[in-house]
Amino acid sequence: MGSPQPQADDGDDDVIRGMVRFLDDRTGSVPLVRKALRYVFPDHWSFLLGEVALYAFVVLVGSGIYLTLFFDPSTAMTVYHGPYAPLRGVEMSHAYKSVVDLSFNVKAGLLMRQTHHWAADVFVAAITLHLLRIFFTGAFRKPRDLTYYLGVTMLLFALLEGYLGYSLVDDLLSGMGLAIGYAVAMSFPIVGANVAELIWGGPFPGVPQFWSRMYVAHVFLLPILIGTLLALHLFLVAARHHTQFRERRTSEHRVRGTPMFPGYAPRSLGLMFGTASVLVLLGGLVQINPIWLWGPYHVAQGTNGAQPDWYLGWLIGALRLMPGFDVTIGNYTLIPNPFWGGALFPLIVFAILYAWPALERRVTGDRSFHNALDRPRDAPWRTSLGVALFTWIFLVFMAGASDRVFVLLGISYVAQIWTFRVAVWVVPVVAFFVTKRTCRALKDAERVRAEREQAEREAHAARAAG
Amino acid sequence: MSWTRRIVAAVAAYRWWKSRRRQERITPPSPPDRPAETLLIALLFAAAACAAGFVAVYALGSVPRRTQFLGLSLGLAFALLSAAMILVGKRLVAQEQLEEDYPKPREHEQEEQDVVQLVEEGGDRFTRKRLLVISAGAAGTALGAALIAPAASLGPFLDVDPFFATPWSRGRRLVDEAGKPMSATDIERDTFYTAYPEGADREQFGAPLVVVRLQPSALHLPSGRAGWAPAGILAYSKICTHAGCAIALYRKPTFPDLEPKPALVCPCHYSTFDPASGGSVLFGPAGRPLPQLPLYVDPAGHLRAAGNFSGPVGPSWWGVRNRKPTTGTTT
Known about the structure:
The complex is a heterodimer.
Chain A: H1 6-27, H2 30-37, E1 40-41, H3 49-68, E2 77-79, E3 91-93, H4 94-104, H5 109-137, H6 145-168, H7 172-186, H8 192-200, H9 209-240, E4 244-245, E5 254-259, H10 260-285, H11 291-294, H12 313-321, E6 327-329, E7 332-335, H13 338-364, E8 372-373, H14 380-399, H15 402-409, H16 413-465
Parallel strand pairs in A: 4-8
Antiparallel strand pairs in A: 1-5, 2-3, 6-7
Helix pairs in contact in A: 3-5, 3-10, 5-6, 5-10, 6-7, 6-9, 6-13, 7-8, 7-13, 12-13, 12-14, 14-16
Chain B: H1 3-23, H2 34-59, H3 66-92, E1 98-101, H4 109-122, H5 129-148, E2 165-166, E3 174-175, E4 192-197, E5 209-213, E6 233-237, E7 249-251, E8 263-265, E9 272-274, E10 280-283, E11 292-293, E12 295-297, E13 303-305, E14 326-327
Parallel strand pairs in B: 2-14
Antiparallel strand pairs in B: 3-4, 4-5, 5-6, 6-11, 7-8, 8-9, 9-10, 12-13
Helix pairs in contact in B: 2-3
């Protein structure tokens, strides 16, 4: 290193000073920049889950823009004559053909497509884990309930966005997914058929403009909505500061952590590049959704072992678990079967998620500010009910994989479904009580340890005095 | 000391204090870390090499496994950059913990009060508040309706006739994937066939059929369907009445105790239908039987529809049990 070189440093300073002055003369925002540079980030690994989601979103936008330059959202039919021999001579939509061409004819096209698909899966996974962290630490309490509602809304939009993304490709799995989506829309009591007719422009598979509707929603409306909510979400986080675990007496009132600059910014950039790295490596090395194997969709075709992307697994599980009946009144079908699993189940889950902060406030009567986080054991009721809720969803999710279990392990499908039909109601109750017991045991152990330490300290003090 | 002197001294003192303040470090001082810096430089050069490798793999004429190498080079470049940034954050900049106050509740009591007051004062010249609220509400609602109304152009919305329409009617021939008419003698047992209406659009729920052959003695079709299955050949809508997927599995009984009869299965949610009894649901979430199409064999031995389906095809909805299917196009 040697001696410092004031000359060079001064030069740098002048350039930076010039830029800062330029900014402040024109925007007056330097006090804000000064504050932002020293914005405090409390340190905990679980606080990074939301950042991973943010960076996956960045990768999604980047790779997605590239894909739009090659994708043709048209259902007009054409015949394939490209390099992939098994599809030669097959009639297919321009939409599907453009994605096959993107995968085989465009350099780096397949890398971008697979990275985009992996990023979508990671995006929703990161949001979900982030949600679990927020829920089980009570981070959604006042003054951050608004931030939480925005986050739950982003999860909802992310699910829809992912569904539209893989529907647009018009391969066999796309079409099967769309048919199910159509059936769920039709299943809404009384108005379902009208709603489906409006969205699809007519009975399935709908008018050609339906593809434009999905496309504009996927590449414009939903990304803008998610981006806007994301900006608001981050603004609210910054406005109220991040929560932290209770480590000191002052944790509730004073936030402690690494400042944005110079400490935190490079670490967060490291996380951004790390997320991008994992997604690009997955996109390059691990095949996902090889649409040329599925072939184009036709109404008359289906394939066995069809599985959606993981984040829709809970819906396919719910659809599969329902016993077969439509609720009818005379000649009218009040509740067609897909409504239970495809609409009511997710509506209930999201209703619980949205209602939780207000519900907890009402039940506990706790309306005060909370900046310090609960450990899950500190709030046994919330933790136990949360574990029960997520066990319920997870079991339904697992039921969606029972056909794969049948193929892999040979366990009778019917037997599995009946097991799940019982388990989804019993296991969450068991999970509730087990969690509650565990929380209490952990608290008890802590109290015992604290008392022992206290006694030892007193004994020590007594010995020192005596 | 005169006032001017005092002022001059004060200004000088302030300037001195300000310059001193500028000299003071904001972040805590710590010594340079040469090895970490060397590692950082190495990481950045390595990232540059990987990114350049990406460009090279991209530009080269023919590369085996190009996608894999592209992913590997770009992914590694990002990974090295990530390591470099984490190294900077953890080792090369000042390590410090800052503390500051969380925003306090009721921090802006005065401003809150002012806003409330301003809103109240802004409206205190209005005398007929009730009527104002009603008129503003009317304007808002009507304008909202006006702006939403054009969305009805998206689809027919109220016309549910298309949901009952299928291309089938008495006399229409069944053709296979290639468009060749299907002969009764071609239909074998223990397998299933997909059939389409001759000369009609195949991409509609009303079009595709699944055709199977069972022992005529094994059939127990609902009353009124006598003669619908010539020589034990049965045709059903290929579209599952649960969620609209295509029935793509035909189950031969492999475990006779559990699965005593052949069944048509949808691979989406495993709704299982009994072809012998008019498509009734054996298992799974479907709430209606699979609609059956009556068949007859023409003098040339070809299979033809003897009418329309026993019920509307596709997933259930409010009016699905209300009417019989009609012949026509769905669009």
